[in-house]
## 1
Amino acid sequence: MNNECTIENCTKPVKARELCSMHHQRLMRHGDPLTIRPRRTKIVTNCKWINCTKSASTKGYCSKHYYIHRVTRTV
């Protein structure tokens, strides 16, 4: 029994189904051990508070203005 991944040019140790951890994870997530999907990149936007130039972090506001928005909004 070979203890290396069965994917060509991969010499990592087998985890399950004759695949290394990385290829096994890809098989479980995408149904194919050779599938490579790029990571999502975060889109940087400015705070929607008037005259604020900081980058937005939550619901379109920077951390300071999100706090103000959350605390002062009426329910």
## 2
Amino acid sequence: MKVSSKGEYALRALLLLGGHQGNVLGIQEIADKTLVTTNYLEQILLQLKKLGYVTSKRGAKGGYMLLKEPQEINIGEIIRELEGPLSPMACASITKYEPCPLEEGCQLKPLWSLVRDTIAYVLDRTTLEDLLENKISLLKGEDLVVIKNTP
């Protein structure tokens, strides 16, 4: 899984809007503060609006604002909606599974499944509020990864 510029820029915009909760921010202000072109940002914000994360206001004092509270915005959901499945390989995907001719007895599929599950574990437990309040901490590998040792 790779997060594209669209996913990164969407999160930047949501963070900015979340930091100004209840206020309308103009497209140019959002673009300037997130370092995203207004044309690309408009496309992203339109998609976020269709998904129900932001709303817009027309007019001279128009712009965008969050529609949901930051604690209601799950980062895993946003990434899936904008980027697609979290799995690095289609054969390990839950939502977009594609069979592989080498799948039977494949020794790599468990690795790809673990990568998928680890990414999902972190993203699904993270909200916009967590990011706004700097609640993200580094986890040690032992906290997430369980590898069975056989005797």
## 3
Amino acid sequence: MTTEHQVTQDGVKRSHRHEGPQKHIVVFIFSIILTAIAFAAVAAGGVNAAFAVILLLVMAVLQVIVQMGYWMHLKDRGHMIPILFMIGGFFVAGTAIVMGLYWVWW
């Protein structure tokens, strides 16, 4: 990481960290590996269906964390409100799914 200096209108020098492409390249390779593992589990054919579904769900959750954290920059400071709104959305969607399943099978 490098530090960039910015001079504001008041003449005050402020600095902020600038991420280089190294982290993005590592995260991109990690995303490709996760996708390859999920694809290989399904393409193998001999894998137990329940294990494949669980593996795909785990890979999907990891992929979401990586995508949100690094590509959408939610790991940075000042992004707490969008994170809280997404958590609220997941809660509402999860509640709707659970209640829909309960309603269908009750």
